Amino acid sequence: MDFNHTSVLLEETIEQLRVKPDGIYVDGTLGGGGHALEICKRLTGGGRLIGIDQDADAVEAAGKRLKDYEDRVTIVRDNYSGMKKVLEGLDIRRVDGIVLDLGVSSFQLDTPKRGFTYRDESAPLDMRMDDRQTLTAKEIVNTYREEELCRIIRDYGEERFAKNIARRIAEARKERPIETAGDLNALICAAIPKKARASGGHPSKRTFQALRIELNRELEVLEKSLDGMIGLLNDGGRICIITFHSLEDRIVKSTFKKNENPCTCPSSFPICVCGKQPRGHAAVRKPILPSEREIEQNKRSKSAKLRVFEREIKEIQQSGVYGYGQE
Questions:
Q1: What is the pLDDT of residue 93?
Q2: Which of 35, 76, 131, 269 could form a disulfide with 265 if both were Cys (CB 3.0 to 4.6 A apart)?
Q3: How many CA atoms are closer than 13 Å to the CA of 132, on its beta-carbon side?
Q4: Domain spans of the chain, in order of start
Q5: Are 102 and 241 in contact (CB under 8 A)?
Q6: pLDDT of residue 198
Q7: Which CATH superfamily is domain 131-215 in?
Q8: Same fold: 10-106+218-311 with 131-215
Q9: Closest CA to 103 of 301, 296, 287
Q10: What angle do CA 154, 156, 161 make, to 5 degrees?
Q11: Which of 74, 60, 221, 49 lies closest to 133 in space, CA to CA?
């Protein structure tokens, strides 16, 4: 099966990235290479693209798609949380732009054996973005404590019937393991009142999303990586992040705000004494959303939001270093 994936907010992202012909750019969620391809087309002056993805299928597909630009592309199989180490291995200290297109790809959703889908009853409960890890969604469903399952489904899936679903799962697995999407769908449907199932899309959508986020540590990785990625940017460099989940967007928004105004001094202080310097600013004050036309063409783009941060490196007179003291 081909790695089919329609890049969301493609034109808007490339416009905000402001690609320089001789710049160095990183696509931290390479996927099928949609954003990367448009960046490569603009690297006409000796520029370079580093593509990172933990999914072996994505790495293979992107390599084929970017073959005509192999003189300016380096693809590495890794999680974007390892971006700094990847760049150090390539003797790169700073870059001119970073792109993250978070969430799950159309290929992953539409390939039953990957286990992300709730639409194929026979699909295994896998959901690994990196098949080198051993933990799968099946293990989570069958071994996590009921209270922990409830927390995951409630917090990551924003599912109001999380407690009912977790209880059904805990009861059912006493009899036999929960193996497939069909097994889990039946339990979810039984836990949600019929009236509630009649609206809001497929009743399993939120629970499957929650399990995927927990398994792949998506929110944890994002929260721990953002500051470091901002620190990798050159002066004037930009990081463009596309989110599909309210919790992801909240993390991005909060991190950008903290980097724009990091001062922790009480408001009553006449001057800043904490020494924490701004690292840049949000390049767009409100998230960029897909157009109605894009949503019509790709319904999966409906929840997408693009936020952009621009780095500004200011020398601190007292210490002679850049930005935060370690940089």
A1: 97
A2: 269
A3: 9
A4: 10-106+218-311, 131-215
A5: yes
A6: 87
A7: Putative methyltransferase TM0872, insert domain (1.10.150.170)
A8: no
A9: 301
A10: 25
A11: 221
Phi, psi of 96 (to 5 degrees): -95, -10
End-to-end CA distance of the chain: 44
Q: Which of 60, 65, 66, 62 is nearest to 43 (CA)?
A: 66
Q: What is the pLDDT along the chain (327 residues), one digit of tens a residue?
A: 455 567 899 999 999 999 999 999 999 999 999 999 999 999 999 999 999 999 999 999 999 999 999 999 999 999 999 999 999 999 999 999 999 999 888 888 889 999 999 999 999 999 999 999 999 999 999 999 999 999 999 999 999 999 999 999 999 999 999 999 999 999 999 999 999 998 878 999 999 999 999 999 999 999 999 999 999 999 999 999 999 999 999 999 999 999 999 888 888 888 888 888 899 999 999 999 999 999 999 988 999 999 999 999 875 433 333 333 344
Instruction: Name the burial class of residue 286, with classes exposed (0-12), middle (13-18) and buried (19+) by CB atoms within 10 angstroms of its CB.
Output: exposed
The C-alpha atoms of residue 132 and residue 238 are separated, in whole angstroms, by: 31
Number of Cβ within a 10 Å radius of residue 43: 21
DSSP secondary structure string for all residues of 248-285: HHHHHHHHHHHHHS---S-TT-SS--S-PPP-EEESSS
* Cα–Cα distance for residue pair 173/143, rounded to 1 Å: 9
Number of C-alpha atoms within 13 angstroms, CB side, residue 149?
Answer: 25
Does the domain at residues 10-106+218-311 carry the CATH identifier 3.40.50.150? Answer: yes
Query: Looking at residue 123, what DSSP letter applies?
Result: -
AA identity, residue 244: F
Q: Is 120 left (phi over 0), alpha (psi -120 to 50) or beta?
A: beta
With tokens 């599909």, the residue in question is 244
**213, 156 in Cβ contact below 8 A?**
yes
Predicted structure pTM score: 0.91
Q: What is the dihedral of CA 128, 131, 132, 134, to 10 degrees?
A: 50
CA dihedral over 106, 148, 245, 232, signed as positive or negative: negative
